[in-house]
């Protein structure tokens, strides 16, 4: 055998090897980071979206059960703040009050994609971009200014994601986190914002909220086996 044969054989092997490892696949998992802003809604901000927007960042992981549904876990940090200055409300004693807190949010959510999400399998009517909604349950820890608290939160959100390339996803989401307490805006030096009007509350009334507006980049991993070309396999 001459050297030409070995060169041709090596070339065929290299092309075949390259094809195996560059072939587009569907993946089960995503992991990545998020960055954006956080703001608070409560006694000193009843209805103004994005008022006193502060930085936020975190990590996210998803398990894509199929084209429509995903389970997501997230660990987020954000800063929230508020002030009674320039508000329409008149607080007891007319004393100015402000606060700044750090929040750490650990949560799990379930997502529903409005379109079957993938950049492959067009016979299954998949789309590389889709809006989605999500809800779940989380744990919030807040700290700063001499006061630390922890409690359960209920996340409600909407977002959009786009398959930028085979393994890379980008997205943007907005969410409310409803707390079941009224002390997110309470500091060690000032207890005024802990039920300032002494009104009887409930689980859905007179409680604090905070929100995240986040951009995300995630990386797919964990190839999914594709047993057949049944268009219902991922639904």
Question: Could you please describe the fold and organization of this structure?
Answer:
The chain starts with a helix and ends in a 12-residue tail after the last strand. The protein has an eight-stranded antiparallel beta barrel. The protein has one helix spanning 3-22; strands at residues 27-41, 54-64, 69-83, 98-113, 129-144, 147-165, 168-179, 209-223. The longest helix is centred in the first third of the chain and has 20 residues, at 3-22. The protein has 235 residues and is mainly beta. The protein has a single domain, classed as Porin (Beta Barrel), CATH 2.40.160.
The global form is elongated
Name the helicity range.
under 10%
- Whole-number total of structural domains: 1
Question: N- to C-terminal separation?
Answer: 53 Å
Q: Can you count the helices?
A: 1
The description of the largest β-sheet is: 8 strands, antiparallel, barrel
The CATH C-level class name: Mainly Beta
Strand content: over 45%
Pfam families: DUF6089 (PF19573)
InterPro entries: DUF6089, OMP/PagP_B-barrel
Domain DUF6089: 15-228
Protein name: DUF6089 domain-containing protein
């Amino acid at each position: 055998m001459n050297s030409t044969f070995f060169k041709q054989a090596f070339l065929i092997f290299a092309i075949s090897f390259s094809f195996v490892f560059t072939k587009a696949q569907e993946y089960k998992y995503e992991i990545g980071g998020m960055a954006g802003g956080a703001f608070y809604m409560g006694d000193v901000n009843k209805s103004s979206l994005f008022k006193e927007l502060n930085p936020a960042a975190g990590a996210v992981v998803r398990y894509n059960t199929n084209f429509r549904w995903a389970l997501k876990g997230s660990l987020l940090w954000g800063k929230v703040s508020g002030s009674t200055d320039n508000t329409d409300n008149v607080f007891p004693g007319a004393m100015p009050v402000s606060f700044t807190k750090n929040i750490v949010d650990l949560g799990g959510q379930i997502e529903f994609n409005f379109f079957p999400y993938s950049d492959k399998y067009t016979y299954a009517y998949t789309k590389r971009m889709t809006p989605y909604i999500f809800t779940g349950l989380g744990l919030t820890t807040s700290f700063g200014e001499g006061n630390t608290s922890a409690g359960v939160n209920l996340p409600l959100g909407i977002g959009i994601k786009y398959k930028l390339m085979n393994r890379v996803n980008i997205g943007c989401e907005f969410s409310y986190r409803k707390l079941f307490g009224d002390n997110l805006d309470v500091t060690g030096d000032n207890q005024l914002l802990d039920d300032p009007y002494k009104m009887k509350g409930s689980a859905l009334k007179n409680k604090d909220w905070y929100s995240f507006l986040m951009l995300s980049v995630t990386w797919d991993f964990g190839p999914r086996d594709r047993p057949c070309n049944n268009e219902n396999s991922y639904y």
